[in-house]
Specification:
The chain is an all-alpha fold and about 180 residues long. The protein is built from seven helices and two strands. It has helices at about 10-30, 45-60, 85-95, 100-125, 130-140, 145-150, 155-185; strands at about 1-5, 5. The chain has a two-stranded antiparallel sheet with strand order 1-2.
């Protein structure tokens, strides 16, 4: 690609485009990162997620026996595997944060962008035309639905990220197996 007198590779151009899109989309999301969870959409469910993280700080954490002190003893609601809650807990410990609301929103946003990158890799594998996979990426990061929910204290984008990565690794493994069988390795 040629921009004026500067000649850059197609790969570098794609990296620049993706980086600019991520930065611009983050600007849209950043205005609500410091907003409290209570008073937001589905604040009960977001607070329910956050209270499990608070319990990790108060009583330590257990992966399989975690507590959500909402409805009374035994304080357990097995809604999901607590990978998101553990991620927020680790993030808060790593960066010595005390604001659970902000930490939840940041981790959700990180998982959203990880899922966006995984989607980009997956679509790039199937669509060789740069315009197609960049259009899919553009729609994903600027979709009004994703602009609202990508910063909510929900484990949804962690699930999306791990789901897309599972599909991507399955496809890569499947392709490797086919190549091995063709080459008789």
């Amino acid at each position: 690609m040629m921009l004026g007198k500067l000649i850059i590779s197609k790969k570098l151009f794609t990296i620049i485009i993706v980086s600019v899109l991520v930065i611009v989309s983050f600007i849209f999301r950043s205005s609500s990162l410091t907003k409290p969870l209570v008073g937001d959409f589905h604040d009960f469910r977001q607070a329910q997620t956050a209270i499990t993280i608070q319990d990790y700080f108060n009583h330590g954490f257990s992966i399989l026996n975690y507590k959500t002190p909402v409805f009374g003893p035994p304080w357990q609601i097995p809604l999901e595997f607590p990978i998101y809650q553990i991620s927020v807990f680790g993030f808060m410990k790593l960066f010595q944060m005390t604001n659970i609301d902000l930490a939840c929103r940041l981790v959700s946003t990180i998982y959203f962008y990880l899922s966006a990158m995984a989607l980009l890799l997956l679509t790039k594998k199937y669509f060789k035309d740069e315009k197609i996979y960049l259009s899919i990426f553009l729609y994903y990061i600027f979709s009004p639905f994703n602009l609202v929910w990508s910063r909510a204290a929900f484990p949804d984008y962690a699930s999306v990220f791990f789901g897309i990565m599972y599909i991507l690794f399955f496809i890569i493994g499947f392709i490797i197996q086919i190549q091995k069988s063709i080459l008789n390795i």
